[in-house]
């Protein structure tokens, strides 16, 4: 069994990589908003994500060690598909068309704020004073950058980005609940469920599509900035919980703003610098958090991918197996598998975050 800190580091790396991919996609999308309608571009982004995730699914070797999606997961999957796959991208494309690429990228930090607030108030994840200060700094940076444009359409663009980030904030919390299922399957179903109806509606309404070369560019952005990013983000949500994933993922707008300045040659304004300083302070506060204490686990029964190591004791996954669950598996070495299992009530102390095994009162 991996040490909890090692698991957290893997989750942080997955979240950071997802943030880099998504952050670079926003300014690139802003350069293409005039080449097609918001609906057609959003549909193509998720079509690219679908193609990329389908390829990853088909290239995956051997039997999956993950738990497949269940029938009772479908309502949550439908909700996150509509919010995160349709409402969010449409509002994003419309909003980016009314803002500079750098401003739009930095405003995407509102996704972290919404995710954090929902995770703490609804999902019962824990954030102390340090986390609340991090939220305040991030929100302050978003307020600064939203007032940075003097164009008459600035408030409209900011409002549309806010709608997109709220949809993604709800999506993130729903996704965290589903993150114990196969991440590639979840991401693929979401992408396909979003792209197919949007493409159909766009064709039926005669929406304007970009030229063929630009269609390929949008599809490629979708493969990396949406498909691969969604998959990695689900892995991060599993290991870290929605609140802490949100703080790391908030580096996406920093990446987007930097990408806009360095690659797209947008000016580096005092407003962008000030907002970036505030947001960087918020991210740094939570990344430096070290949360560990004596805590009690309630009895829990669920099904997900987990590890057994004969050389280590894992208090979270100490359970009996049936012969069928161990069929074809060497048990004298560390191994991963997925099946329904029971967690007995236990108490212990170690560093942890608000993953599925650590939602307790503080």
Q: Taking Cα atoms only, what radius of gyration do you get, to the nearest Å?
A: 21 Å
What is the ordering of alpha helices and beta strands?
Answer: HHHHHHHHHHHHEEEE
| Helix/sheet category | mainly alpha
Provide mean pLDDT, rounded. Answer: 77
The helix content is 55-70%
Task: Report how far the terminal alpha carbons are from each other.
Answer: 26 Å
Task: Give a verbal description of the structure.
By secondary structure, the chain is mainly alpha-helical. It has 2 domains: 12-293, no CATH class; 299-344, no CATH class. The protein has helices at residues 4-30, 38-59, 74-96, 101-107, 110-121, 129-146, 154-178, 183-204, 212-240, 242-249, 251-262, 270-287; strands at residues 292-297, 300-308, 335-343, 346-351. The strands form 2 sheets. Strands 1-4 form a two-stranded antiparallel ribbon. A two-stranded antiparallel ribbon has the order 2-3. Helix 1 crosses helix 11 and helix 3 packs antiparallel against helix 7. The longest helix is centred in the middle third of the chain and has 29 residues, at 212-240. The protein is globular, with a radius of gyration of 21 Å. The two termini are 26 Å apart. The model is unreliable at 148-153 (pLDDT under 50).
Spell out the key features of this protein:
362 residues; mainly alpha; 2 domains; two-stranded antiparallel sheet; two-stranded antiparallel ribbon; 12 helices
Explain briefly what this protein structure is.
With 362 residues, the protein is mainly alpha-helical.
């Amino acid at each position: 069994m991996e040490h909890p800190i090692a698991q957290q580091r893997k989750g942080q790396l997955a979240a950071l990589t997802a943030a880099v991919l998504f952050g670079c996609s926003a300014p690139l999308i802003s350069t293409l908003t005039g080449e097609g309608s918001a609906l057609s571009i959003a549909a193509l982004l998720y079509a690219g994500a679908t193609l990329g995730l389908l390829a990853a699914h088909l290239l995956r070797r051997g039997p999956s060690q993950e738990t497949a999606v269940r029938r009772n997961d479908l309502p949550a999957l439908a909700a996150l598909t509509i919010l995160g796959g349709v409402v969010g991208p449409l509002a994003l494309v419309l909003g980016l068309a009314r803002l500079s690429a750098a401003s739009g990228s930095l405003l995407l930090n509102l996704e972290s704020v919404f995710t954090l607030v929902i995770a703490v108030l609804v999902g019962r994840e824990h954030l102390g004073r340090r986390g609340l200060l991090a939220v305040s700094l991030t929100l302050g940076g978003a307020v600064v950058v939203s007032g940075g444009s003097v164009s008459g359409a600035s408030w409209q663009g900011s409002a549309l980005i806010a709608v997109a980030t709220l949809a993604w904030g709800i999506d993130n919390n729903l996704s965290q609940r589903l993150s114990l299922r196969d991440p590639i399957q979840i991401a693929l179903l979401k992408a396909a469920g979003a792209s197919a109806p949007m493409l159909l509606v766009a064709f039926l309404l005669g929406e304007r599509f970009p030229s063929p070369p630009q269609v390929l560019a949008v599809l490629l952005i979708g493969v990396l900035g949406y498909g691969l990013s969604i998959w990695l983000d689900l892995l991060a949500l599993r290991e870290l919980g929605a609140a802490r994933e949100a703080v790391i993922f908030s580096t996406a707008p920093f990446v987007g703003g930097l990408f806009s300045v360095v690659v797209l040659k947008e000016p580096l304004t005092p407003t962008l610098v000030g907002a970036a300083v505030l947001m960087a302070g918020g991210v740094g506060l939570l990344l430096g958090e070290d949360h560990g204490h004596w805590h009690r686990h309630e009895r829990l029964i669920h099904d997900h991918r987990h590890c057994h190591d004969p050389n280590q004791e894992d208090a979270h996954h100490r359970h009996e197996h049936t012969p069928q669950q161990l069929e074809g598996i060497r048990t004298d070495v560390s191994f991963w598998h997925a099946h329904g299992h029971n967690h007995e009530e236990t108490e212990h102390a170690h560093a942890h975050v608000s993953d599925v095994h650590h939602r307790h009162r503080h």
